[in-house]
Specification:
single chain; 357 residues; Rossmann fold; 2 domains; seven-stranded parallel sheet
């Protein structure tokens, strides 16, 4: 039996990160049925219940030390852990877990991560030193390869994989069927938004959504990938759109949200994993980039991406309309584009399984 400790942003009710964890656990168990997985979590009870793993409070040093001392591998990932856009403290926590595992002489690996941006010089140097000491690095996107090259990380093998959420399958549970019945019949477009510094874009987006609703006889479904952060924004934009909008409140598992996303005709989104869910099931998308990871994914699947730092609201409406006018062709092209990326997603668990052999 091999014991693996997984470090990541887990137990915070963020469906994107829970999708990463679900995809990671399922793939590793498929390859190594004897594996024992422990997850560092902000809500150990919820994590253990949702994923069938041993969960360790991430903020209890004694528990963390005990788990790392007795593991065969410390796995850091996936997601975007080594970045200081959301918080300057965040990368120090995840680097600290890696440093402790290495100090204890435990093997370490970086799993399907997006790297950066790290704006502080000290944290960049620390990250480069610790990442250069891991056994293997698998990355989520090409942009992360370039970041590690700039940082001078050379020693461990580095492989391009993809987001573990691409390995998930939709779950049409009774809860999903009940939610879907609320939408009624007809065409449904999706919105997957998060809060943003400048609120003016919400009104402009709602205006573009109203216009698209009238032109294409579509209903807008407002998703919340991180309800504690997103639900207020979803409710507000739905109120701006009016009667043609429905808010999805959940709670749903990642596989349930994947099923709901697959029933959309089009998705406009800021949340990376909403975009990944859409691409995985061939739902054409319009990405709204607040972070380089959004731009990187949209570019990789060949879908339009608009920058929220320099919003062009006229172009936004035109881009939504253009996507809605050619859905069958875009769906076929998107499925073809995502197929090799999905195949890459299977590489990271295979490499980790080899480490444990």
């Amino acid at each position: 039996m091999s014991r693996v400790v997984i470090s990541g942003y887990y137990g915070f009710d963020n469906l994107g990160d829970e999708a990463v964890l679900a995809g990671t656990i399922e793939a590793l168990r498929c390859l190594r049925p004897d594996i024992e997985i422990a997850v560092l979590s902000a809500n150990p009870e919820a994590t253990a219940r949702a994923h069938g793993v041993r969960a360790i409070p991430r903020d209890r040093p004694a528990d963390l030390l005990h788990a790392l001392r007795h593991c065969d591998l410390c796995l850091s990932g996936g997601g975007s852990l080594f970045q200081d856009v959301t918080s300057w403290r965040s990368p120090w926590y995840y680097l600290g877990v890696l440093a402790l595992a290495q100090r204890l002489g435990r093997p370490t690996a970086v799993y399907a991560q997006g790297i950066g941006p790290l704006r502080g010089r000290v944290v960049r140097r620390t990250a480069a030193r610790l990442l250069d000491a891991v056994q293997i690095i698998t990355l989520r996107d090409q942009a992360s390869l370039a970041v590690l090259d700039r940082w001078g990380v050379r020693r461990p093998p580095i492989a391009l994989a993809a987001d573990p959420a691409l390995l998930l399958r939709p779950e049409w549970s009774p809860r999903v069927m009940a939610e879907r019945s609320r939408w009624g019949g007809g065409r449904c477009f999706g919105l997957a938004l998060r809060s943003w510094a400048d609120d003016r874009w919400l009104e402009a987006l709602a205006g573009a959504a109203r216009a698209a609703s009238h032109r294409f006889d579509a209903r807008w479904i407002c998703l919340s990938m991180h309800p504690s952060d997103d639900l207020t924004t979803a409710t507000r934009v739905a109120a701006e759109i009016g009667a043609a909008a429905t808010v999805v409140r959940g709670p749903f598992t990642p596989c349930e949200m994947l099923a709901l996303t697959g029933d959309l005709a089009l998705l406009v989104g800021m949340r990376l994993h909403a975009l990944i869910f859409a691409a995985l099931l061939g739902v054409p998308l319009v990405a709204l980039a607040y972070d380089p990871k959004i731009t990187a994914f949209a570019r990789e699947v060949g879908e339009p991406c608009l920058d929220l730092d320099a919003p062009d609201f006229l172009r936004l409406g035109q881009t939504i309309a253009s996507a809605a006018e050619s859905l069958p062709e875009r769906r076929a092209r998107l499925l073809a584009a995502v197929a090799p990326i999905k195949a890459r997603a299977a590489l990271a668990p295979r490499l980790v399984a080899n480490l444990l052999s």
